[in-house]
Design a protein that fits this description.
Rossmann fold; alpha/beta; binds alpha-D-glucopyranose; single chain; 26 strands; 8-stranded parallel beta sheet
């Protein structure tokens, strides 16, 4: 439709119909018995039949047949035949589950992240998605927060900007009505990743300068990439819930960042402003939200039940409603839904395209780049398949390796490590035993109970656990090497999965301790959604391969890396803390007045643990051996118009081929505000043949030196800087230069 036709349509709408467009319900409202996925506190919204058939969108209804059925049911009773929008959480893939976002970010490869977004968009678009509630670009620093698993950027704003822009572009292409393109929804606006003590939905409080310096860049990059939607977050910003925060939505997002798209609240967040104590009652919650500028009320009855009354009391509010509805109608128009309310759903295409072998092959390749080799003593990896291997641990025959947001993917169909090892290793060289469960029933039942799902009971659990470890030891005795699959349960990370203790489960640590007594090399494959505290196993094992929740092709991808077909190349985007007591921890921290540079009591340190992380940002080993030397700057001074060329020589002193992520950090040695000890300002993922030498070059310009000052100006200040180059944020070569 032409825009003037959209405006004509708006003018035909009754106030009830307009308000309906601003309400989003779970799709099961139209499917009755066929309850779809819920991602928040599901409750009956008690919407009138009239309002229900006026709503503008539904969430998490997927599958061509189901989407068409809902659209037909809805349109059959819609006066103006304005089609529903289908919005979904395709967080790490639809039917093909890809690695969880934190893993994708560890690839440090924009092409990997783009390709995953493209395949996810195609699969979900054919299955009915018009909008994807992704990318989640919240900067994160606290591993106690379960949603770090969703953060594509981890603790770094530079990565955040690059990934945010590229995922939005990959989802949307040049025309969101095209097959395989979907509207993106950048979330969660804003700073949701900074919840105090890592407790979900908790308070966020920081200076605007800190927000602009670290948290805003990734949101801005998504907006600059023309993201169609934004989602407000559950937390407060400067004392006011983001969802009713006029400074955030009107002054920053709309005016300063120029966002013209649709703003949706998070699940029930408008109603929750009452619980926050920021809205007196439901009517005030509606007034606060419409005045702040939220266009769609996700899964609460606030707009549905109160906007009409407020509009009748204040004409100005109806103008705001008109603006919101116009944005929503324009989005539907861009998606082509007025011409074809079914979008690009296609039952035949769905059968042919979804989970197709080419994409599964590609998914395996992409997945391999997300693994991070944390330890590899005596080059125990890659494995020689002719040695006697004993595969042990709760993940050796468990396909639930796709993470908590992969609710549309069938976990039961995934290959397990055991399945794939069996194809790879002669039976006489392969033995296996579970050794222990992921969690003891006491732990898993806390999670199941909170979900309202049936709990588990095991008679003589302790006895059985001991027996299980004993059997595993017996089997392992006759092997040369132990491959130990450990980690979190997938329900321990994601939304509402905060944990005060980020150690491996006690029963798994006991298994490690017992196997350690056999004095055989142990290779750990780690499945988790957050950095874990590995102190209690790290010195008992010879290798640790961090695979996060690797998705549908995880078992195949892991096996090929373990046996050396592919060299691991991932690098951490989030520091691994020594333990939960060290959270939040991040590499781009300030120096403090007493940096812990030597052994002395009165410094910024702990009495009981080291100050530095267990594994730092940017860290990841390879089967290759990369040697950095000869860092050169072509000049020692720049001004606002000139640049410095930086070059470094890197040798792959090994027989393996593989990628290295060469990282460039800059430190502003002093400023009008304190400056971080270093900031990532560039990286290159370079391929090396065995024994290959390369010169890698970067350019430094004034843009890389800018920061938000006390007056909230984005400036660079003259003075001395350091440039660091290395394969992580700690082991680097360094040089100095000056901005004049
Ligand atoms: C959830 C999440 C958000 C998700 C939305 C819809 O509560 O906070 O990330 O997209 O609701 O499921």
């Amino acid at each position: 439709m032409k825009d003037r036709e959209i405006i004509e349509l708006l003018n035909k709408m009754t106030l009830e119909e307009k308000i309906g467009q601003m309400v989003q319900v779970a799709g099961d409202a139209f499917l009755q018995a066929d309850i779809n996925v819920t991602t928040g506190p599901l409750k009956n919204l008690e919407l009138s039949e009239e309002m229900l058939y006026n709503v503008g969108s539904v969430l998490n209804v997927m599958g061509s047949k189901r989407v068409r059925k809902v659209q037909d049911e809805y349109l059959s009773k819609s006066r103006l035949k304005i089609p529903l929008l289908f919005m979904d959480d395709v967080i790490n893939g639809y039917k093909i589950a890809f690695p969880i976002p934190i893993a994708q970010g560890c690839s440090w490869n924009v092409d990997v992240v783009r390709k995953i977004a493209q395949i996810s968009a195609m699969e979900s678009n054919i299955a009915g998605a018009n909008v994807n509630f992704s990318p989640m670009v919240d900067l994160v620093r606290d591993a106690r927060w379960g949603r770090v698993m969703e953060s594509i950027e981890g603790e770094d704003p530079y990565l955040g900007q690059i990934y945010s822009k590229n995922i939005v572009q990959a989802y949307q292409g040049n025309n969101i009505s095209q097959l395989g393109q979907i509207a993106s929804c950048v979330k969660h606006i804003a700073a949701y990743g900074a919840v105090e003590s890592g407790r979900d939905y908790n308070t966020v409080d920081m200076s605007e300068r800190e927000f602009r310096q670290y948290y805003m860049p990734a949101y801005k990059a998504g907006i600059d990439a023309n993201a169609e939607m934004l989602m407000t977050s559950f937390n407060i910003i400067n004392g006011i819930p983001a969802t009713i925060n006029k400074w955030l939505i009107q002054d920053l997002v709309r005016k300063e960042l120029g966002f013209k798209g649709v703003i949706i609240s998070d699940y029930g967040a408008i109603e929750e402003t009452i619980a926050h104590g920021a809205s007196k009652d439901e009517k005030e919650a509606a007034l606060n939200a419409i005045n702040a500028g939220v266009d769609i009320d996700m899964m609460s009855r606030i707009y549905a039940n109160y906007l009409k009354e407020i509009c009748l009391e204040n004409k100005e509010i109806e103008n705001k409603v008109n603006e919101s509805v116009l944005r929503i109608l324009r989005l539907k128009n861009k998606l082509g839904l007025f011409e074809n309310p079914y979008g690009n759903t296609d039952i035949e295409k769905e059968k042919k395209y979804i989970m197709n072998s080419d994409n599964l092959k590609e998914a395996k390749r992409l997945t391999q780049e997300t693994f991070v080799l944390l330890k590899n003593e005596n080059n125990i990896l890659p494995l020689n398949k002719n040695r006697k291997i004993c595969l042990i641990g709760p993940y050796m025959d468990n396909g639930a390796i796709t993470g908590s947001w992969s609710m549309f993917s069938d976990r039961a169909k995934n290959n397990t490590i055991l399945d794939i090892f069996r194809n790879r290793v002669k039976s006489e060289n392969l033995s296996y035993a579970k050794g222990t469960e992921i969690l003891r029933t006491e732990e898993i039942n806390k999670i199941l109970k909170a979900d309202g799902t049936p709990t588990i009971h095991i008679d003589n659990e302790q006895e059985k656990e001991k027996q299980s470890i004993k059997e595993a030891k017996e089997i392992a005795k006759n092997s040369d090497i132990i491959v130990l699959t450990l980690g979190e349960h997938y329900k321990q990370s994601g939304e509402a999965c905060s944990r005060s203790n980020i150690n491996l489960p006690e029963n798994q640590v006991e298994l490690v301790n017992e196997l350690y007594k056999l004095n055989k090399p142990i290779v750990v494959i780690l499945f988790n959604g957050r950095p874990l505290s590995l102190n209690n196993i790290e010195n008992k094992v010879d290798a640790i391969l961090e695979v996060w929740f690797p998705g549908t092709t995880g078992a195949e991808a892991i096996t090929e890396v373990i046996f050396g077909d592919v060299t691991p190349s991932g690098k951490l985007t989030m520091s691994f803390p020594q333990n939960a007591g060290q959270c939040p921890i991040y590499y781009n921290h300030y120096k403090t007045g007493r940096p812990h540079t030597h052994d002395f009591r009165y410094l910024s340190r702990y009495q009981d643990i080291p100050t530095q992380s267990l594994y730092p940002f940017g860290y990841g080993l390879s089967y290759c051996k990369f040697k950095y030397r000869n860092l050169q700057l072509n000049k020692k001074q720049i001004d606002k118009n000139t640049t410095i060329k930086v070059s470094v020589e890197i040798e792959n002193a090994s027989d393996y081929e593989g990628y290295e992520v060469v990282q460039l950090y800059i430190q502003d040695l002093y400023g009008s505000v304190v400056r971080p000890v270093k900031e990532l300002k560039g990286f290159k993922k370079e391929y090396f043949k065995p024994h290959e030498n390369k010169i890698i070059e970067f350019k430094i310009d004034i843009e890389m030196l800018k920061f938000w000052n006390e007056k909230l100006q984005y400036v660079a200040e003259k003075g001395e800087f350091k440039v660091y180059i290395g394969g992580d944020s700690v082991k680097t070569l360094e040089e100095t230069f000056e901005l004049v």
